Amino acid sequence: MVQGLQRVVVTGLGAITPIGNDVSSYWEGLSTARNGVAGITLFDASRHACRFAAEVKDFDPSGWLEPKESKRWDRFCQFGVIAAKQAVAHAGLTIDESNQHRVGTAIGSGVGGLLMMETQAHVLKDRGPDRVSPFCVPMMIPNMATGLTAIALGAKGPSSAVATACAAGSNAIGDAYRLIQLGLADVMVAGGAESAITPLGVAGFASAKALSFRNDDPTTASRPFDAERNGFVIGEGAGVIVLESLEHAQARGAQILAEVVGYGMTCDAHHITSPTPGGVGGAEAMRLALKDARLEPEAVDYVNAHGTSTQANDSNETSAIKSALGDWAYQIPVSSTKSMTGHLLGGSGGIEAVAAVLAIEHNLVPPTINYQNPDPACDLDVVPNQAREHTLNVVLSNSFGFGGHNVCLAFRRMA
Predict the structure, then answer these.
(1) Secondary element (H or E) of residue 245
(2) Contacts of 94 (CB under 8 A, 6+ apart)
(3) Residue 415: what pLDDT?
């Protein structure tokens, strides 16, 4: 942090995930190694090479959204708005005419309203252009989770939507952190939302050979850092946090859950989907986050890894962590919660930021489940299969995306 900038704290959390539809059930799932992967139910996947995913289960928007909103909104928008409402309620934050211009929104998405796009493409083909929904464009553009959240909350401050693929949720949180640091907002509601478990989404990632094809045993398919990993499991959901300036939070007597102290981002400028060999860009993002936080590597107690369960990511991220933290990388736990939730694409940084804050609160490191076969290229302590008690004061959360986007967020226990 640069001297003179506002300190930024977390005061509220919201989560819609494949292992729980609120923060308490999500944390229970993380701490008990709940597996969110199963056969696809959102559409008939019988013709697909990959027939499983990490879906949000028993999702009921009633109580949070009006029936017409549930009917018209794309699923990623519903996830994002509800997670944001949860976070604001958790923060005990009131938004009204006295402060609405100082409260902003930033919810990233890698894909946006893919379901709406697909559905209306079929309408266009089968029924003609006059039958395409007037909600088609508003609900498929990736900024709409942010826009609808602002409308729902009455937040008239800075509003943006980041679309840096799988780094989008973390970029949104980092950008929100910067806005508050600079005094451009007092409060930001930030995170990521995604719902790309659709015929086109699954087929596209399968064709790119990015997904696991363990159809015979899907619950073991997401196995980050394991030698037999063979692709990620697509997930869906949203994670949103409330960020405030420390001064603002203290003035209203808010409960402070953690402090955001560092944000680093880089681009590999290397390849559309593959990271730079050795994880050079990811390592630099981690170094920049630590520099921003004015922390040495030895201050880090845990890394919530991007950990996608792909061959390319996990070995390169291991190299990145070792490059950024040096020998200290071998002294701390490094785990991937995607082993339980699957990969939420642009939503992953949001739910993983929530996980980082909760890990600090509970002094508990979520596990990497399905870890059975050590890989010499992934030789860090990945907290295999069971959560572990560990004193946590500083946690890093990594997110990397197609296009070479690398983001690292640093969270610290509030003294």
Answers:
(1) strand 236-245
(2) none
(3) 79
Q: Which residues of the chain have pLDDT under 70?
A: 1-3
Which amino acid belongs to residue 311? Q
Residue 1 is predicted with a pLDDT of 46
Q: Which of 7, 64, 352 has the alpha carbon at shortest distance from 178?
A: 7
Give dist(CA 408, CA 352) in Å, integer: 11
Q: Are 259 and 411 in contact (CB under 8 A)?
A: yes
Q: Which two tokens stand for residue 282?
A: 């990811």
Angle (deg, nearest 10), helices 75-91 and 144-153: 40
Catalytic residues: 166
CA 71 to chain centre: 25
Does residue 193 contact residue 109 with C-beta atoms inside 8 Å?
yes
- C-alpha triplet 91, 94, 96: angle, nearest 5°: 150
pLDDT tens profile 113-128: 999 999 999 999 999 9
CB 192 within 8 A of CB 201: no
In this structure, are strands 8-16 and 258-267 parallel, antiparallel, or unpaired?
antiparallel
Domains and CATH numbers, the chain: 8-251 (3.40.47.10), 263-412 (3.40.47.10)
Characterize 375-401 residue by residue with b for buried, 16 or more Cβ atoms within 10 angstroms of its Cβ, and e for exposed: beebebbbbbeebeeeebbbbbbbbbb
Find out whether 275 and 404 touch, Cβ atoms under 8 Å: yes
Place of tokens 């959102």: 42
The pLDDT assigned to 3 comes to 57
Question: E-assigned strands of 76-230?
Answer: 103-108, 159-160, 187-195
The C-alpha atoms of residue 95 and residue 188 are separated, in whole angstroms, by 11
For 298-323, b where at least 16 C-beta lie within 10 A, e where not — what string? eebbbbbbbbbbbeebbbbbbbbbbb
| pTM, to two decimals | 0.97
